[in-house]
Amino acid sequence: MTEKSGWQLCGDGPEAYETYIVPAFSGAWAADLVNRADLRNGDRILDVGCGTGIVSRYALKEMGGSGRITGMDVNETVLEKAREICPPNGSAIEWRHGDVSDMPFPDDNFDVVFCQQGLQYFSDRPRALNEINRVLVDQGRFVFSVWRPLAYFPFYRVLHHALEQYVNMEAAAQLASAFTLGDSTQLRDLLENASFKEIDIRLTIKQMRYSPFEDFLVGGFLASPFAHDILALGASKREEMFRVIKKSISNYIDDHGLAAPMEALVVSAST
Amino acid sequence: MTLDRELLEILACPKCKGEIHLNTAEDGLICDTCRLLYEIRDDIPIMLIDEATEIKD
Q1: Domains along the sequence of chain A with CATH
Q2: In this prediction, does ipTM exceed 0.90?
């Protein structure tokens, strides 16, 4: 398993991801990513690190059944969820269990490769980018997003602090791993070294929105890789942590629940 | 079994990137070059080198 080191979801994680994270922000970011690709009729699309399949599903909606969509992830539990939502039979999305470092596709096989919030977790980023370049046709498009540094996320900054204080440093480090590739110079270098051209980096700011906040907090933890650590805390310590989090983020809670900004670099590059 | 021939053409062995084909039981994909069998579980091919089974003669 070399693809991801951070946010691996297991157990009920994929279900919680679809229930809380997709409506709060992941769906909106996926729609934005698919729009950036300017898909054409018949495009062959690969969604790397597809998770429960949100980007693939938006791409399917956009393509209206033309073209071919493949979702690939290294994690079996998220693929089971993806398959449950969009069964391979009768849907235009095929799900593949694979590793971005050794992709199970021939050269020049896709017109577009998407990767939403995946690249930062890949243990060997240069190798992953070379593989993505290899499976793309000439003039193919790689469209992906990575979060900016943790400092730009009021909600996750509060969460990170709470994990350090109440849970353990490993959980805090796991959360922080989502925000480790938000430097555009570093990104551009990585892409150029993997022979990508026409690199276009767009700073994009959106809002995470969920009501009621308490549901999102619990659901977000369930969807996280440290769900077990939170459960192991015990009720009183957990409730204290939730109270502290809510108080610390209160400037971003309005009559409609949580409303906190999040920033990402949305990037397109061609082969 | 939902993997049709056309879909096989867009899959390759993750190790050598060469052609693969369905086994006779139609529950796995074989790379003759690497002598590896990739299992298909719930219609999803497990295309991981670490999880492939070596084919012995």
Answers
A1: 13-270 (3.40.50.150)
A2: no
